[in-house]
């Protein structure tokens, strides 16, 4: 399954610079004026996972194929975006298709970089963007409510959706995002969300864009942003987008050396993806043959047939069993034959719940 992350925020907070750092490519315009990004930038990048490279070496596969992540750099939102201000309707449409939102907040001062405020105000920045997302959701809900109120007269089965739409509208009207809606797991809400793709129902990670010195020392703006994120129960990740964009062309070893000087165990990509994986409840499992070792992304809690279906629908339909080796076991023996001889190869049926890092061979017949 694919994962898409939308990078959003006000103009000139560092979204495109972060995009370039994340994707290791200087293909998004990062300029000192609002709306330097008009069309959204897209990049598909590999998901870093050191376990995959080790597995490739153990099984002597020719290559390692990583899972892929789609990053979308959405142009800056402004107050009134839900009405079309600053091309807002187009920009909001780009966000509806993503799985999670990385909301960038400016937490640095620089007189050379134009911003909507004279000084960084992460709380105000956060409120403007979140309000526009909520107002956009209210618009689509109101349109859907009008339609449901007509349709329910001829189809009583829609009463549940109508009631749910009214509850959701009232909830947003109180200033709360739909990701906190108590009925978000109800079938009627899931049906509405599948159709309308609510912006405020999407998981959010706040990304505080700081200057280089504040990576290790922090600053007052970062602390203010963290306190707000904590109140929401949201995650916050501090990055220096300009610093990491400068490191984009370095080798992995050189990047690691620079990052370690700031006490960072990994770059923005690794940390943001790790946070998004946890937020979305995703895990990876591995397969291999003589040509390739490969990582696959699935949702935590999926069974073996569901995981097989990510490779090909025929494998799920004709599933017989999964031959599973937990990653820790493969790491200890580094050889399938030795693992089998030790009696540690697990033959699992349809009810087996795949675990993060499982190395799996699927048996199927169609």
- How much of the sequence lies in strands comes to 15-25%
User: What is the average of the pLDDT values?
Assistant: 85
Shape: flat
Q: Major beta sheet, specifics?
A: 6 strands, mixed
| Helix-strand category | alpha/beta
Number of strand segments: 12
Give the helix tally.
15
Unreliable stretches (pLDDT < 50, length at least 5) are 28-38, 81-88
Distance between the termini: 22 Å
- Give the helix level as a range of percent: 40-55%
**What Rg do the Cα atoms give?**
23 Å
Q: How would you write the strand order of the largest sheet?
A: 2-4-1-5-6-7
* H/E element order: EHEHEEHEHHHEHHEHHHEEHHEHHEE
Question: Could you walk me through the main structural features you see in this protein, from its secondary elements to its overall organization?
Answer:
The chain is α/β, with parallel strands linked by helices. It contains 15 helices and twelve strands. The protein has a six-stranded mixed β-sheet with strand order 2-4-1-5-6-7, sandwiched between helices. The chain has a three-stranded mixed β-sheet with strand order 3-9-8, sandwiched between helices. α5 crosses α6. The model is unreliable at 28-38 and 81-88 (pLDDT under 50).
